[in-house]
Protein 1
Amino acid sequence: MVAIRNEIDKVADSPASVLITGPSGSGKDVAAQLLHQKSRRAGAPYIALNCAAVAADLLESEMFGHEAGAFTGATRARTGRFEAAHTGTLFLDEVGDMPLAMQAKLLRALETRVVERVGGMIPITVEVRLISATSVDLLAAIDRGLFRSDLLYRLDVIRIEMPPLADRPQDIPLLVEHFCLTAGAPPIRFEKAAMALLMDHPWAGNVRELKNFVERTRAHHPGEVITRDALPRLLRPTGASVVGGSVVGGSATRVTETMNDVLGGTLPPMTLPQLDPGHGVDLRQLIADLEQAYIRAALSACGGTIAGSARLLGLQRTTLIEKMRRLHITPSA
């Protein structure tokens, strides 16, 4: 992390585009903000847009703005994120989830430094420093035809790679101390044995999961010294999960119960049909039904966001998007 901070110090004033990579929850947005704060643009706007959190048909308007009457509901003109970030920094989070049609428009804007509002014909010159972030393997996405290689070359001028928390367990005590101090009164403290257990935990959700754990611990044990014995009730279980669209780690009923705990009880009861020599099962339909139920439940629990749903389901965002298209599921489903 010291090396990453040094790299940020060196490139902060460069106008070149920066691509920040790393798993979800590893601090990509923090790195982007630090790049802006360390630059000469620190006094100018810092505008962020999560590409995975905006419906595909609204993303162009969010990015470039729109004129009054451009589409149903556009009762007045609106400035886009590019215009709002003029002379400052534009941060595009989860850029790997951007639809291909929008990728072409972003590429043109980066090449010309000119944007046009939806429904408008007047070119608007913008001067922004672009920082983008993704937890998607963009080279693999290019191979699958989901991301443009020419756009990657535009975004990936300077790359900063954020490592997963599991690769830097020595940072965990420092991060825990920081979160304990910033979480507000009353403070908590961890015994040495408890901290050792935290350093051995996999932290699949990375720094974000660690921060949530500290907040949860403080809520349950305000002002206390946390022992090792208290941790099993506070750490999230890592047993049953859904990986690559398949159920792993137990029966369908038990996995459904576990997922219902996470998703707030939005999954219907599920039981696997028994195989009988006289009656087969439609395995393809069974898998499709399971995928439908889990994806819809995850979308419901995450307010329709692709990024959050993919994290719940243990999928890459591009994989989830492909499944949703195949199953005709929309983010609002």
Protein 2
Amino acid sequence: MKQIQIITLLVMGILISSCGEDYLDPTPVSSIGSNGFYKNEAEVQAAVVNIYDGLQLAVQREFAITEMRSDNTKTRSSEGDWAQFEDLNVKSTNSTVADYWAMFYNVIFRANTVLENLDAAGDSAPKFEGEAKFTRALSYFNLVRLFGDVPLIDKVIGPTDTEYFDRDSTADIYALIISDLQTAIQNLDNTYKGRASKVAAQALLAKVYLTLKNYGDAQDLCEDVIGTSGIALAPTFRDVFYTERNSEILFAIEYVNDIADNSQDFSLEFTQNGRVRGLNYATPELITAFNNYGGAARTSTSLIYDDTSTAPAIPDPLQDYRCGKFVSNSTANQQNGNDWIVLRLADVLLMHVEAILAGGDVTSSSSAIASFKKVRDRAGLPTGSNITKEDLLNERRVELAFENHRFFDLVRLGVAEQVLSDFATANGIVFTTSDLLLPIPEREIGVSFGKLTQNPGY
């Protein structure tokens, strides 16, 4: 990882599982146990770095269970398990869903391991606590929004700790997320963009509060982020993605070209050379949205025409367009170095508008218009004298396309059922309200001693 020392084989020996194993399996992969390992600050620091290594793996297929379950993206050829996402027909045996669950619980395990060994961290203990709690909160925020009630595991557990195998209420999960992020805000500074920071924790907590309809606290946090020294929109939209660690980035998961353990392959999958000849391709509906609301700079950066011939002057919804934000830049194809952006300022500026809307349909607040205008100005587009919820949804869609926000935006703003139902009808597929949650992976139910139950509709 950029700016982070690559972890040694000795440190890797403390892990309980690889990303593909069930999260309930606590067996170490080597004879080096965590009880005897964490003796000083350097060793705890290595465990902190290990959390980010886990995130590198965990987010690589997130596009499938977010963007491809919305009206934004699809596969190029509608083949295999990937087509379950675009068809809103995800099975409990889907391996991508199972791996996502296991990977994020593995990140939670790594964070819990750090939190249980802070006594060895010396003066760095508060910072390491903030990083561990930020990453644990991020993991649980993703899981609770995608699966609903999930097991709350706030310590390193063993195979006999079956009381942790139950599903806990979303209220309890959100209480832990909020507490973790409040600690992270208190303990962190803004040194890093590829590691947890105060400003990233503030932005994430603001999004949590928006999800819970706590608009006042969300607005305050957004304004804190917007006013933070050194945080500013990148000069051009393209700079956001092709000048890494720029002023707009609050938190990104960092990768390096051509180093297998620190590279990603989603950039390759977003092309016709990827598996099933292309994943995360723009739907006709997304292409139309760019034509209506995108502006030239955002459209040309976001969409790449998939033909070798000259692209149409105006993107054609009947043609294939792939994501242009994370173009493969590796000599080894599957070992790309494009960072995955989790939080950036444009998202927060639009969250600020959402907080001021406070569940309403329109606002003429000068503060909301000022934030909206910053995003629109960079796109070369005018801003009116008021902002509707529909304006906000359209702006978020084209500004943040392919960045895994659309599905969560639809749910949070209360329009998911209508939008996805209309999308399904137009595309000859079936949508039911149970599709708003993913199935609990069948293999996890199988190893939970009957504790885990399935979501309705699966």
Protein 3
Amino acid sequence: MDSALVVAALSTACAVWLWTGPTTATTRLAKLTSGHHKPQWRSLRRLFTRQSPARRAQSWRLASIELCQALSAELSAGRTPGEALTRAIAAVDLPDPDALRPVVAAARDGGDVSAALTASAPPQGGEGLRQLAACWDVSVTVGAGLAALVERVAGTLRAAQAHRQDVAAQLAGPRTTARMLAALPALGLLMAAALNMHPMTFLLGSLPGFACLATGITLDACGLWWTNRMAARAQG
């Protein structure tokens, strides 16, 4: 009975840890309220912090908005486009600062900034960088005001981000329900163990029991994966 309780409790704890971890918004709020950190601590934190592809894409989208806002402010202050972009990149806390080093080099040396931005943009979450590259290309080719173009891109990115947050809020209920349903089998094991029914003896001590356990875990994991996949597709 004790071993069954321990196994069921560990299963429940793992499910809760995997599916109720801190969101990107919570992480960014903690950064804002915790003050400035030394660069070496930021590097260590990025080294040991692993993000899912969806959260990494979200981090890049937020960083792109901040980059456009910072670039617009630098341009409004009268700085040249290359200097403004360099200062803006240095001021933004990027998910991967090394990814934009070619952009900084192109801005300082008078290279093709638009191509560098396009090449540095990640496949997921790099929409803002690609739009910024298009703005830079238009500004260089046609001579349009870069500050106005960047501000318009920033407004578009903010509107898209607000829409994604609204969709995420609407999907919070279904996601919570799916997680609760996924945890019910573990709760059932706890209840059965409390009634001295010895469920783990059957599940781990016989071939039919082990087959039932493997099938249940597989179906539970597939249900969680499918729910998360549908929610991710709805968020775009």
Protein 4
Amino acid sequence: MSVMSFVRPAALREGDVVAALSLSSGFVARVPHRYEAGRRQVRAELGWRVVPAPNALRGEAYLYRNPQARADDLHWALENREVAGLLSTLGGDDSVRLLPLLDPAVIRAHPKVFLGFSDSTVTHLQFLRAGVTSFHGPALLTDLAEHGGMHGYVSRGVRQAVMDARGFRLRPAPEWTEQHREWLDPDLQEVRRTFAPSGGWVWLQGERPVQGHLMGGCLEVLDMLNGTPGWPEPALWRGAVLCLETSEDVPAPAQVGYWLRNFAAQGLLAGAAGLVLARPRGYTPERVEALYGWVRRVLWEAGREDLPVLANVDFGHTSPQLTLPFGAQARLDPALDVFEVLEGGVTA
């Protein structure tokens, strides 16, 4: 099987300017204290100077009515020589509306680190379709603006993915949380959340080691993207280690199974090298077991009982979360309990 090759952007360095982009929701304008906390913590932990794209702070109503302004911000950040990287402020639910407005030639001509998750799945896949590595990780308003300071697991994960040109081994977070702190209340910004010990990751099936390029994203967003001109070509899926997560919508386990059946019908599971599932947000232990049952069922239906599946992984809608370099080669080894990125997603 041939190995997919992607253009790798330059590694971010301390002192770099990174543009904050609101490519979906403009909620950031309602929580200026959270935005400023994120900027401070990014500067303190990563050394970057965050600046807003021209339209990023113009508010929910304006950005909803003006998808062109959001696409313009992406192109502006890519073409601006003073901007070294791109950072999503938050997710949302309508990045798919940007598809007719995005220019893949600009993405290809100006490869830069793009970091985000959730609805940023749309943008990540357009980077991959343009042949450029992209980075599924925390947004400015989420883990980067964590209450009371950025979690060390998050800052280390970002650094190893976008500031180091070497490969790295991924490891479970020692703790995690879903505790809610009201973002609209500035007085709660410095009140740390309570974290519980992590149960670690779990292998659902598989025995032999596999290798492939990372790709995927939020399943609800992939469902919106499916069938549009922004859906990746079959060759891009072939040989991939699929990294899939669910959002705060908490889809039923059966719904996840239906989405995977769609992937099977398209031949995406037949051609996959491996599957990595994020810790599902808002699930009870019973719901988690039902989810895993559906995953095994669909893979049996697809004749992929051989496919290595690693679950409960710390990415997506969980805290703290990893940063995954989509497009980089990765290796799964169930026997040795290994999930590692074999090459840097950036260049030195």
